[in-house]
């Protein structure tokens, strides 16, 4: 009964530790490995909250978790406020490791989770859908596209992204954005200093001013939420 850690409290009714502050385990001894595991401990609700995850391969890191519906958990991998001055012209290493807005080292503001962490969460089955949302902060100005059956490859594939199908679920005011990644075709991630796109003449990430899963540069602005 007195073996609960990290603020956990023993329950005589369930004869288990009732964990708090994002900790999980029989004795509340560790951080969760995913947003899905947090849901099993009743942490994750329909309201977005920031948690520390600890998948085992790296130090604990922050991200946002929320319930979308009964069978879908939201794990934020990127957040950028339209018009904010965050610099996304980053190196390959920064995109692999992740970065935060310099003015506020918190996922409550702008951040990129990191390709290695995204790959881990995807391989664990906890990130199989991607929903990219562009919200301009104005009434009825938003664009949302949903990618299903997403697979994020490892470093040997340059963290390539493939998916089964995509559909635009919101496009208020006919905003000039589109679906630009091809289904069932792995697309490597590119950065200004690591060009992996299929355009032989142009570094799409350099032209767009940010890293992304570019196939070519035809729609670099419309298809890159970071640029």
Task: Tell me what you see in this structure.
It comes from Lymnaea stagnalis (Great pond snail). Residues 26-227 form the Fibrinogen C-terminal domain. This is Fibrinogen C-terminal domain-containing protein. One of its GO terms (cellular component) is extracellular space. By secondary structure, the protein is α+β, with helices and mostly antiparallel strands. It contains 4 helices and 15 strands. The longest helix has 9 residues, at 115-123.
List the helices and strands and how they pair.
Layout: E1 9-11, E2 16-18, E3 23-24, E4 30-31, H1 35-40, E5 49-53, E6 61-69, E7 72-75, E8 78-79, H2 92-97, E9 99-100, E10 111-112, H3 115-123, E11 130-135, E12 142-148, E13 151-152, E14 161-162, E15 165-171, H4 204-208
Globally, the shape reads elongated
Question: What ranges have pLDDT less than 50 throughout 5 or more consecutive residues?
Answer: none
- Radius of gyration over C-alpha positions, nearest whole angstrom: 19 Å
Level of helix content?
10-25%
Please trace the helix and strand order, writing H or E for each element: EEEEHEEEEHEEHEEEEEH
Could you describe the largest sheet, including whether it forms a barrel?
3 strands, antiparallel
Number of strands: 15
Protein name: Fibrinogen C-terminal domain-containing protein
InterPro entries: Fibrinogen-like_C (IPR036056), Fibrinogen_a/b/g_C_1 (IPR014716), Fibrinogen_a/b/g_C_dom (IPR002181), Fibrinogen_C-term_domain (IPR050373)
Organism: Lymnaea stagnalis (Great pond snail)
Domain Fibrinogen C-terminal: 26-227
Question: Summarize this, please?
Answer:
The chain is α+β, with helices and mostly antiparallel strands and 227 residues long. Helices cover 11% and strands 26% of the residues. It comes from Lymnaea stagnalis.
């Amino acid at each position: 009964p007195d073996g609960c850690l990290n603020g956990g409290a023993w329950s005589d009714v369930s004869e288990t530790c009732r964990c708090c502050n994002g900790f999980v385990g029989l004795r509340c001894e560790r951080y969760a490995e995913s947003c899905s595991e947090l849901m099993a401990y009743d942490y994750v609700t329909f309201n977005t909250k920031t948690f520390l995850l600890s998948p085992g391969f790296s130090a604990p890191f922050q991200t946002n978790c929320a319930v979308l519906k009964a069978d879908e958990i939201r794990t934020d991998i990127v957040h950028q406020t339209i018009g904010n001055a965050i610099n996304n012209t980053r190196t390959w290493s920064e995109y692999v490791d992740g970065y935060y807005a310099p003015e506020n080292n918190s996922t409550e503001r702008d951040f990129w989770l990191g390709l290695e962490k995204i790959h881990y969460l995807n391989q664990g089955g906890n990130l199989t859908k991607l929903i990219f949302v562009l919200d301009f902060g104005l009434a009825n100005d938003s664009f949302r596209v949903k990618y299903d059956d997403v697979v994020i490859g490892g470093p040997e594939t340059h963290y390539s992204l493939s998916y089964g199908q995509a559909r635009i679920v919101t496009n208020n005011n006919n905003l000039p954005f589109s679906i630009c990644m091809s289904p069932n075709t792995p697309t490597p991630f590119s950065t200004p200093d690591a060009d992996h796109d299929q355009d032989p003449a142009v570094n799409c990430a350099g032209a767009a001013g940010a890293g992304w899963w570019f196939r070519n540069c035809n729609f670099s602005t419309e298809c890159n939420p970071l640029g």
